[in-house]
Amino acid sequence: MRYLPHTPEDRADMLARVGVASIEALFEQIPEDKRLARLLDLPTRRGEMDVERLLSAMAARNVPAGSVPFFVGAGAYKHHVPASVDHLIQRSEFLTSYTPYQPEISQGTLQAVFEFQTQVAALTGMEIANASMYDGSTATVEATLMAHRVTGRRKAVLSGGLHPHYAEAVRTVSTMTENEALSLPADVFALEDLVGAIDGETSCVVVQTPDVFGNLRDLAPVAAACHEKGALLVAVVTEAVSLGLVKSPGEMGADIVAGEGQSLGNGLNFGGPYVGLFATRAKYLRQTPGRLCGQSVDADGRRAFTLTLSTREQHIKREKATSSICTNSGLCSLAFSIHMTLLGEAGLRRLARINHANAVDLSGRLSDVFGVEVLNRSFFNEFTIRVPGPAAEIVEHLAQKGILAGVPASRLWPDADLDDLLIVASSEVNSAEDRAALAAALREIA
């Protein structure tokens, strides 16, 4: 191939050096049914203008989230991002900044990181937070690995209300690290017995709130049971705006909080890049993955910021590192921090109340539709409904009518009997007309 200079002999030599018989053997950890054994259905070569036309035509088949009534959530949420956020992060001193290998000469970068950590610690009700992670799912993985280190145990119990993509990430890493991940069945009504699943081998219980079905979880009883049996409670938050209204995980006894910060300052971005949140108790500081920025004074007594703790394996502890996280989501965490600063505490609480009020209004409208049942006893801005028929088909039908109605539970749990369940989110960007349109469309189907 034109851009791959290696000859067949070169490839054979490299395979022999690493001790495998074929290139396919390098990918044996990937399930066979997930591997593509053919080329993608695309032209093998085209001119630049032809490529632009082709890709533009493919993109035009999508329904942009901002062009129609939008009720999709399940871990990624459409919120209004003030124009000032994008304007500020595109300043060259921010946009071109990356991992600070000589951190103390980048005082502006370190101050932004310090402010971000302060905000995350306050939001989650914890004592310390790190300088962000890739996203919510990998932050959850790091939380379970940290719990294994702290407790000396190797089993994580995963709630049935944990987003299945997060659970899958934990299970994947567990298979590579000889740890155990016990996933409980999908828990639509938040009735699972988490306490009964804790035993002497359990390092942590991982619970999401609001969970993937929208239920608000009281973490206090689970935290007490964990602590009684020497385990840690890992709280997962995928909707950061909820922390402006509900009791924080720290107040409910969580030991580690892993979350997704996309809701603040960051658009949906077709699924990424996002920003992982990670906070914990100060006593676990040395076991925290990633890096932490601290405040100090310089030789002249002036306020200064320093990279207080960095556990990266490449240039600090190598094989003794607590994590192999290679960077933080610097630009995304900066967007998060700017949005938070613009809102302030009062603004965040007001935004959270608007989200909840919109969801309550939508819940009432949908409850009035014959054949539709709202299943939640509590929720923030997302809830689950039972619809009259396969939810996936209804979603496709409504998309043709210009309404993105939500996420079918069957898409997240294809092997479970959840075909008639639809997860619906309503944030501040939904108007009363949007909510009326969804109710009317479902009424027509019913």
Describe this entry's structure for a reader.
The structure is a single chain. The protein is an alpha/beta fold and 446 residues long. It folds into 2 domains: 115 residues, Alpha-Beta Complex (Aspartate Aminotransferase, domain 1), CATH 3.90.1150; 258 residues, 3-Layer(aba) Sandwich (Aspartate Aminotransferase, domain 2), CATH 3.40.640.10. It is 35% helix and 14% strand. The chain has 12 helices and 13 strands. The strands form 3 sheets. A 7-stranded mixed sheet has the order 1-7-6-5-4-2-3, with helices on both faces. Strand 8 and strand 9 form a beta hairpin. Helix 3 runs antiparallel to helix 9, helix 5 runs parallel beside helix 9 and helix 9 crosses helix 12. It is globular, with a radius of gyration of 23 Å. The termini are far apart.
Short structural description:
The chain is an alpha/beta fold and 446 residues long. Helices cover 35% and strands 14% of the residues. The chain folds into two domains: 115 residues, Aspartate Aminotransferase, domain 1, CATH 3.90.1150.10; 258 residues, Aspartate Aminotransferase, domain 2 (3-Layer(aba) Sandwich), CATH 3.40.640.10.
